[in-house]
Amino acid sequence: MRSQAMFFKARAGEKLADVQLQKNLAGFKDKFVGMRARAVDAYGINGGADFEALRDAGQMIRDRVLENLDVWLELFEEKATQRGATVLWARDGREICEHVIAIAKRHDVKKVTKSKSMLSEEAQLNVALMAAGIQPVETDLGEYILQIDDNEAPSHIIAPAAHKNLDEVADLFARTHDKPRKTDIPALTREAREVLREHFLTADMGISGGNFLIAETGSVALVTNEGNGRMVTTLPKVHVVITGIEKIVPNLEDFATLMRLLPRSATGQEISNYVSVCTGIKGVEDSDGPEHTYFVLVDNGRAGLVGSEFQEMLRCIRCGACMNHCPVYQSVGGHAYGWVYPGPMGSVLTSLYTGLENSLDLPHASTLCNQCGVVCPVRIPLPELLRKLREKQTERGLRPWSERVALAAWSWVAQRPAIYALASRLGVRYLNWLAEGSDRINVLGVAPGWTEGRDFPAPQGRTFREMYKNRNERSKA
Ligand code: SF4
């Protein structure tokens, strides 16, 4: 599985130089951060409850599932089958496409409406559908905007078109829909609804992702803010759910607990506008619903993480909080990361799913400030996982020789206190010489690349060793 994640540095440089993107990102930067903060505060005030305890509960639910993932998956398959659904398993993106196209052919499908599914992005399903003569129509507003803009890739997992501004969308709609240009959001959304309604009513098959799979009932839970999920799952005669095997939760109570975490962490909402729990096929008493339901449960690298040092990553409930709070994501946006998942979670997942050698820069696309770890609703230690990936790259000799030599030299010096002290003194003198009396260094002589886009702070006052020595001397006096 290849990605464009090899080229993070080059892409990040392009994104930083993109004036329009930088303006759009500045508008986006604090939006979700503020909304999450207010929702977390309100959780404590209104409910008298503790959001940190809720995070503990979320982590426990996810860990309990991952410890016996095979058992929960078998239970899910049994219950879903009892309710008339068909459960299929896919090892990778190719098998996802094969299953979906086989289902489409079986039911003579010509048009498919889709609710957001990151797995279909992993599999590049739209490309496969079109090659098979089947028209895919994205119905999540963000995904729809990207589809009509030459099938652009999403830049955020919950706000796929976060990199675009209102004017860009207005131009795109006017061009694509051949209607007068509108500039207010309600008019634009109304226009999208009019176009999409026609597709909802004529599609033969609906494809959705799944926020959670509920083992005790064999159901899929979908969380949306636009209602498109319901149209996709109930109107066509065939519904196909494509989701990762790790999305399982044992029961409805656990689902309810995770639903207290997901919207608050994602969009700062107490609850999303639409929460749908779909079980089985249309019954004789039901006025609507699919006649055929298929679950395509996907591995694509997930099973290999169970029991590994990266298992914690499988707790992810795809809220997007880590990227919303990441200073690197906020500066370069999602496209710089080069694959389906951006931000800190994406840097870990891309490395694990596409190979360390195919994503050399991604574990380093982080300051390790731990903002992501602090907000993750299921307490995934993202900085620790990124550090482990860096270690693995070094162990496998995947880092540049200059970096490996520098680290080996550092290790040698750090283990010899006298040499370390001498090197520190010389280093400080050298930096002060470069600073020429200023508090900033514009060009870092030995590593000029570091100061290409920023200044290096000049040493201020005494070194840590000097302060420590003085303190010890004072305490002895
Ligand atoms: S890693 Fe945590 S914060 Fe990031 S998307 Fe997953 S659950 Fe949300």
Describe this structure in words.
By secondary structure, the chain is an alpha/beta fold. It folds into 3 domains: 1-48 and 320-399, no CATH class; 50-303, NagB/RpiA/CoA transferase-like (Rossmann fold, 3-Layer(aba) Sandwich); 401-476, no CATH class. Helix content is 51%, strand content 11%. The chain has helices at 8-17, 19-29, 31-47, 51-67, 69-82, 93-106, 118-123, 125-131, 141-148, 166-177, 185-202, 228-234, 252-266, 321-324, 327-332, 343-354, 371-375, 382-395, 401-414, 417-435, 464-476, and strands at 86-90, 111-114, 135-138, 205-208, 212-214, 219-224, 238-244, 248-249, 274-279, 292-298, 440-441, 456-457. The chain has a 6-stranded parallel beta sheet with strand order 1-10-7-4-2-3, with helices on both faces. The protein has a 4-stranded mixed beta sheet with strand order 8-5-6-9. A two-stranded antiparallel sheet has the order 11-12. Strand 5 (212-214) and strand 6 (219-224) form a beta hairpin. The model has no long low-confidence stretch (mean pLDDT 94).
